């Protein structure tokens, strides 16, 4: 599976802040917004990732993330000239995706919950058509809304309905098999002049191949598209990080924990940001990994001597 982060658009709901910079480069508490969707793909064990942005913003994303090698990733970049809807990501990223399945995530969505890596990887393994992720909201008219049957299969989906049939919003994370590329290529723009992601999903729904996984209690899904929601997201991250002593969406830590980089590379990344609390945290977890390594080696040696290795 390959990953696509859609980080284009004009961010008009955040004007005047986004008149000069991409929304996905704005800070959510102590790190750029794009770290959050990138971390989700990393936790799903996806290493080959395409970032789609505007031509003006692409050099800024490249400056921030480079080619991904310092994180054990392979990052590519592409341009979305004008906002044309989510399915454009499949059209722009068709050559990148090749024959692989695709995980599409919106660059302004934040997901957080227990056992996130295992949850995402299991969803990948079970992919047969498309997998969507539902979340209960108080204002479903702002979102794509899905109805499901007893088996968790999608029965209907509506984009921003005036009278929602349910409060289950379909979040900005989607797993699709490769057929989504052809479906997107043959879509007709809606009355709004954009391609709609619901039109990519409907063929799967009609075939009983659209599975909806509800994000349960303990999971958080945050949309950072307005000034208030951006502030709410920052405060949410701040509270959790202060209470738990961890960093949410710390891409260096995820790369280290998943074996994509070693402690030396992780520490070097942290040292390049040493004057910030974020950089200090990255160096700390790298030092912890370095100090734990001899203990693991000693334990392995003892195990071998005991005839258990």
Describe this entry's structure for a reader.
One of its GO terms (biological process) is hexose metabolic process. InterPro entries: G1P_thy_trans_s, NTP_transferase_dom, Nucleotide-diphossugar_trans. It is an enzyme of class 2 (transferase). This protein folds into two domains: 1-129 and 170-240, Spore Coat Polysaccharide Biosynthesis Protein SpsA, Chain A (Alpha-Beta Complex), CATH 3.90.550; 245-291, no CATH class. It contains eleven helices and 13 strands. The protein has helices at residues 35-43, 58-65, 88-92, 94-97, 116-125, 179-185, 197-206, 227-244, 251-257, 263-271, 277-305; strands at residues 2-6, 27-28, 31-32, 48-53, 74-79, 102-106, 109-112, 130-136, 144-148, 154-159, 168-176, 210-214, 220-223. Helix 10 (263-271) packs antiparallel against helix 11. It is globular.
- What composes the largest sheet? 7 strands, mixed
In total, how many domains does the architecture comprise? Answer: 2
CATH topology of the largest domain: Spore Coat Polysaccharide Biosynthesis Protein SpsA, Chain A
Gross CATH architecture of the largest domain = Alpha-Beta Complex
| Helix run count | 11
The secondary structure category is alpha/beta
- Widest sheet, order of strands: 5-4-1-6-11-8-12
SSE order: EEEHEHEHHEEHEEEEHHEEHHHH
**CATH level-four homologous superfamily name of the largest domain:** Spore Coat Polysaccharide Biosynthesis Protein SpsA, Chain A
Percent range of helical residues:
25-40%
CATH class term of the largest domain: Alpha Beta
As residue ranges, the low-confidence spans are 297-309
CA-atom Rg in angstroms: 20 Å
Mean pLDDT, all residues = 92
Distance between the termini: 34 Å
How many beta-strand elements?
13
β content, as a range?
A: 15-25%
Principal-axes shape call: globular
């Amino acid at each position: 599976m390959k990953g696509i982060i859609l980080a284009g658009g004009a961010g008009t709901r955040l004007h005047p802040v986004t008149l000069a910079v991409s929304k996905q480069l704005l800070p959510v508490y102590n790190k750029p917004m794009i770290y959050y969707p990138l971390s989700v793909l990393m936790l799903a064990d996806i290493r080959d990732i395409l970032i789609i942005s505007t031509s003006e913003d692409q050099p800024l994303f490249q400056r921030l993330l480079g080619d991904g090698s310092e994180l054990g990733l392979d990052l590519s970049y592409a341009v979305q000239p004008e906002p044309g809807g989510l399915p454009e990501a499949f059209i722009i990223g068709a050559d990148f995706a090749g024959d692989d399945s695709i995980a599409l995530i919106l660059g302004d969505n934040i997901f957080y919950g227990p056992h996130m890596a295992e949850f995402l990887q299991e969803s990948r393994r079970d992919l047969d058509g498309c997998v969507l992720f539902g979340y209960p909201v108080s204002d479903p008219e702002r979102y794509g809304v899905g109805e499901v049957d007893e088996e968790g299969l999608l029965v209907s989906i509506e984009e921003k309905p005036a009278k929602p049939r349910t409060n289950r919003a379909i979040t900005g994370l989607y797993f699709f098999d490769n057929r989504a590329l052809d479906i997107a290529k043959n879509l007709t723009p809606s009355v709004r002049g954009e391609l709609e992601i619901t039109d990519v999903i409907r063929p799967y729904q009609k075939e009983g191949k659209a599975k909806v996984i509800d994000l349960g209690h303990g999971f958080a899904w945050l949309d950072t598209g307005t000034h208030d929601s951006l502030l709410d997201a920052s405060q949410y991250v701040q509270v959790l990080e202060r209470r738990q002593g961890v960093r949410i969406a710390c891409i260096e830590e995820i790369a280290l924990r998943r074996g994509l980089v070693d402690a030396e590379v992780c520490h070097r990344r942290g040292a390049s940001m040493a004057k910030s609390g974020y950089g200090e945290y990255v160096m700390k977890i790298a030092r912890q990994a370095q100090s734990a390594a001899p203990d693991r080696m000693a334990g392995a040696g003892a195990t071998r001597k005991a005839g258990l290795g």
